[in-house]
């Protein structure tokens, strides 16, 4: 299961109710900040999420409404908050801009208050834990190195407790070893194989997060079968030409992607101040009913099916 907490859901400039792009994706003890628009540190505090274990930041691209909050965050770390390390992942152009912001404006010759790594990533798996991976994929927006992210738990075979009970497998390391694919020996000498107590393989949970994008055809396969797709919806279809000019999506276009990719739920973010939320939602739901519009501090649990 993944959880996503939205910290900022506005496009380009903040509004009275929406901050700039930022969200926290969590899985067990892992936490990832996706983008860091202006004011993100205040949103982190106001949400109650805090800075603990928030040591990895994933950038979708280098536009200012997605990175300016890094300056304030680093300034706060210099004075008040303390974290063990900070890794910032993104495309080369985004990281070059972040380097200028942090080292040229905030630090200005000082050393970061923690080990700081700016990690350029290419499309493909770039983070892997015991039970989940994060894959980066290319996104078409204004400028090079724009990325989307797919969070996926690994496929697993469920442990069938009733079968283990019937075979007399005791609670403890024997069951753990069976889950890990090992044959175990019982006290009476019988051997129990994993296939006797494990069910069929089940695919994992998939959460796809896309920042700004002007196309959907080149990300369709990356979104395929996602349990949730988070993506921008900057324009309504009445201004489709303007959306294309600035390489953004309309609510209708985002919904068509969700429908064609067979996702379970569509979560729209990055809303322009020019539109009413209900109009954005209505346009998308006309194409893909399982659509919601995220607001600041909304939290969603993403589970398989």
Give descriptors for this structure.
2 domains; seven-stranded mixed β-sheet; single chain; Metallo-beta-lactamase, Chain A; alpha/beta; 10 helices; 305 residues; globular; 16 strands
Give the oligomeric state. Answer: single chain
Give the N-terminus to C-terminus distance in angstroms: 11 Å
The CATH topology name of the largest domain reads: Metallo-beta-lactamase, Chain A
Global outline: globular
What structural class results from the helix and strand content?
alpha/beta
Query: Main beta sheet: strand number and arrangement?
Result: 7 strands, mixed
How is this structure best summarized?
This protein is of the alpha/beta class.
What does this structure look like?
Helix 3 crosses helix 4 and helix 9 packs parallel to helix 10. The model has no long low-confidence stretch (mean pLDDT about 95). With about 300 residues, the chain is α/β, with parallel strands linked by helices. It has helices at about 40-45, 65, 70-80, 90-105, 160-165, 175-180, 220-225, 240-245, 250-260, 275-285, and strands at about 1-10, 20-25, 30-35, 55-60, 85-90, 115-120, 125-130, 130-140, 145-155, 185, 190, 205-210, 230, 265-270, 290-295, 300. The radius of gyration is 22 Å and the shape is globular. It contains ten helices and 16 strands. It has a seven-stranded mixed β-sheet. The protein has a seven-stranded mixed β-sheet with strand order 7-8-9-12-13-14-15, with helices on one face. A two-stranded antiparallel ribbon has the order 10-11.
């Amino acid at each position: 299961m993944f959880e996503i907490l939205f910290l900022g859901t506005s496009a380009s400039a903040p509004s009275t109710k929406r901050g700039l792009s930022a969200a926290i994706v969590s899985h067990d003890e892992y936490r990832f900040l996706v983008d860091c628009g202006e004011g993100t540190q205040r949103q982190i505090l106001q949400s109650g999420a805090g800075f603990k274990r928030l040591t990895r930041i994933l950038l979708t691209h280098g536009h200012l409404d997605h990175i300016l909050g890094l300056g304030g965050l680093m300034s706060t770390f210099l004075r008040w908050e303390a974290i063990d390390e900070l890794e910032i992942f993104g495309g080369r152009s985004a990281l070059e801009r972040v380097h200028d912001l942090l080292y040229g404006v905030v630090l200005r010759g000082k050393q970061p208050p923690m080990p700081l790594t700016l990690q350029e990533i290419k499309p493909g798996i770039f983070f892997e834990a015991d039970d989940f991976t994060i894959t980066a994929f290319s996104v078409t927006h204004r400028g090079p190195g724009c990325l989307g992210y797919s969070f996926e738990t690994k496929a697993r075979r469920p442990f069938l407790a009733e079968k283990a009970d019937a075979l007399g497998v005791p609670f403890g390391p024997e069951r753990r070893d069976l889950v890990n694919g090992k044959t175990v020996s019982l006290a009476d000498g019988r051997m129990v194989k994993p296939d006797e107590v494990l069910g069929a393989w089940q695919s994992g949970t998939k959460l796809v997060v896309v920042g700004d994008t002007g196309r959907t055809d080149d990300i369709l396969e990356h979104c395929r079968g996602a349990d949730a797709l988070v993506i921008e919806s900057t324009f309504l279809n009445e201004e489709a030409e303007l959306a294309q000019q600035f390489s953004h999506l309309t609510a209708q276009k985002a919904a068509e992607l969700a429908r064609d990719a067979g996702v379970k739920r569509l979560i729209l973010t990055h809303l322009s101040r020019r539109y009413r939320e209900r109009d954005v939602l209505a346009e998308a739901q006309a194409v893909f009913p399982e659509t919601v519009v995220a607001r600041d501090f909304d939290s969603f649990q993403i589970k398989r099916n």
